[in-house]
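step 3/5: co-fold with adenosine-5-diphosphoribose
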Amino acid sequence: MNVNPDEPRLLLVRGDITEQHVDAIVNAANSRLAGGGGVDGAIHRRGGPTIMQETRRRFPDGCPTGSAVLTGGGQLPAKYVIHAVGPVWSGGDQGEPALLANAYRRALELAAEHDCYSLAVPALSTGAYGYPLTAAARVTIATLADFLADHPLPHTVRLVLRDDAALETFRQALSDLSGTVPPS
Ligand code: APR
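step 4/5: write tokens
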């Protein structure tokens, strides 16, 4: 492992997660691992059919909410896809924050177990699953920062946001947590 201590470990970027040149990307999957729209649709379109073939073969029972499983990356630039299942937003008193945090933590653990130096993650649950962006940003940033503080791998986590509004919301959550304005 070649760790560069000067490199920031948590980066916020606007873009398309399927285009990230990292060791692994995280998919916003559902518990049946059945594919869908949003991040999931983009990953299976760009990655090709081998990803779904592998999930069906290795994980026929799917993956519980708040957890994650890992497959190869097919034709994506990333070597692995980590399929993480965030919660559906049901008002906030159905354990959604803990389930969202657990989904990220399990994804990061799998990345570490597979020696991934760099990982790209989307804003799980904030699309079809309806998790309010500001609340999701707080949980997401705190969970990623906590994990990075305790683990050498993955060294770099790139949080990939789809638009400027999401990027600004996550930047605010990061600055609230660290008390500093993160670099652009
Ligand atoms: N790259 C990065 N972010 C993206 C991309 C992309 N290519 N496409 C969408 N997003 C953003 C959305 O704008 C949203 O903020 O990712 C966030 C998560 O949205 P979804 O993909 O809808 O994921 P989620 O809310 O977790 O819902 C999961 O949707 O597609 C289905 O099969 C999936 O049932 C599952 C559910």
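step 5/5: annotate
Helices lie at 38-47, 50-58, 96-113, 133-150, 164-178.
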